[in-house]
């Protein structure tokens, strides 16, 4: 980055991709970190569904499609304005009065048609047949405005007619202008692959049938669309919030074996997070002239070299936490996150801000790191609660029932706390099981896998690192995630360090034991 540009960004980047793209503009492609497995996984022709929690990098990955090099000469179409989806929900509300078995296929047909019209709009200047296929106009407005205009023309027509929706959609899709437009698109895609990336809403109400059915229909459409067209160069990528994905699979999607396949879960590993955060810091320090000599030449695909040359010189190799227990510095910072890039970026920027006030930047003293992590983790906990506010109304008040818990406890304690929340749940939704499910989904409570009293380490599993639910039984030994200690005033009554990392070989690289 140029020095003038770097003055506008934080040392470890911004907490959201939209801000980085706006600030860095064309330089964002240089700032983007390419050495993660998600990049290649997301470009697999079989992959159409990319699932991640808030802050896991969905928007950054959708931006990557426009400058990636694996598929040459790609045409990337980014549909990332949630207001457009709100219009869809409004327009299809009358179509979802039937059973979901009837409604979802109908909405999926609308999605399919809409996706083709978006492609036609973006490619209208490349072939006269494609321009002719823009049967509802070829407006030069933003995608969201185009979607609103198209839906007003399309769905209102269906709602005003007495004919069968599916039959009429089939008739329009078989129109010779649409057929010719698709053929022209496929001709272009042979030389220039086309990727349509749809970034869905960040807040979902799982008890909103319209919202859930519309999203399920998008997934069904995506599965069929990619099956039919990805091998011919037209790819559809749908980014979905992991906060609602379990509910969609269990309650809404009509056939999970048929329509949910080859998902890419944005579960980050330590080496990827370390290299990502170090890459950003490296760019910043180099631009401002503060990069040390030992950090100049780095093999970015080598985790150990990145740690030795880019993390340790600034953060130090180890520290003593607030209890005086020794820890490696990177595992210490990382265990106060839920393994998401945004959370690590926020904590590291908080550390950098404190070091700047203390006039030690770019070196971070152990006490600076400890105080900054304690300061930043509260905000991280609040964001997790906010991300579930539409899934679980009054979630902030519900989790207050955990206040004062010991950091490690027996699972039956949850059933003692659960009744305290009954008045905060929507009518008919409270149960001890629902309470346990909520706190597991949010990643507040995990299940202990191993306690080593001698060394003082506790290893635990949390749902956010899994593709399935994490049941919390009354007989389980449970643990509170370190990120929530301050938010819930947790009683840290043991001289133990909780490491909320899954039992996976890549986490052995942390060597925290």
From TrEMBL:
Source taxon at top rank: Bacteria
Protein name: AAA+ ATPase domain-containing protein
Organism: Stenomitos frigidus AS-A4
Lineage: Bacteria, Bacillati, Cyanobacteriota, Cyanophyceae, Leptolyngbyales
